Amino acid sequence: MNKIDQLYQELMDSNHTVVLTGAGMSVESGIPDFRSKSGWWKNIDPLTVATVDALEEDYDLFHEFYSTRLQTLGDCKPHDGHRILAKWEQKNLVHEVATQNVDEFHMMAGSKQVDQLHGSIRTFRCHQCGSSASFEQFKNKESCSICNGQIRPNVVLFGEMLPEHAWNSALHHIERADLVIVIGTSLKVYPVSQLPQMTQGKTVYINKEVNDHHSFFDLIIEGSAKEILLAVDQLIR
């Protein structure tokens, strides 16, 4: 049995399937992946930009960085792989998508049960008082109308805690899963990197770059997330 057939069979046999996605899922929509060998951040240390320190001490750099990311995002949209996961959810084949991505592509493609473990870059708030803010306020570098604080995207910066509800929900689904499919993440960012090891179910890893670090998975498929999901979906049809 080839690996595509094996994944199809695991999906059919599972009563509760969780999909965990990372940057590699969004790369095929045209969004740069800073963790790959040809990553967008290869010449910029993300630890110096996507941090609370940068926000508070060098807001101009922080603002320029996230403005560039938002501009890049504006030219991109969900791909067939996102839409397939949404379709599988409708068919009761996928019961949860937990994602490290902040682009909201899973929801835009139609997935309903999505936990955004690293927040969303499409919504904004005051860093100081937490009040909701608009994209226009962020774009124009306006201060919070309530406390005069700095406006930021609702992303989890390095060193910040993950959203409690999203984490607890993802963990709940992972712990009861028969099958966990990990797509397009290097699993280098804690604590999300621990999630695949918290299941008693079967584990599948799909990524363009695979190394020994991923050897604990039951099934490893190296290649394009979109093409692999399309191939499995052909078997379901």
Describe this structure in words.
The protein is an alpha/beta fold. The protein has helices at 3-13, 23-27, 52-57, 59-74, 80-90, 105-109, 135-139, 164-175, 225-236, and strands at residues 17-21, 96-99, 114-116, 119-126, 132-133, 151-155, 179-183, 202-207, 219-222. A six-stranded parallel beta sheet has the order 3-2-1-7-8-9, with helices on both faces. Strands 5-4-6 form a three-stranded antiparallel beta sheet. α1 packs across α9 (225-236). The model has no long low-confidence stretch (mean pLDDT 92).
What value does the Rg take, in angstroms? 18 Å
- Going across the major beta sheet, what is the strand order? 3-2-1-7-8-9
What is the CA–CA distance across the termini?
19 Å
What percent of the residues sit in helical stretches (DSSP H or I)? 25-40%
Order of helices and strands: HEHHHHEHEEEHEHEEEH
Secondary structure tally, helices: 9
What fraction of residues sit in β-strands? 15-25%
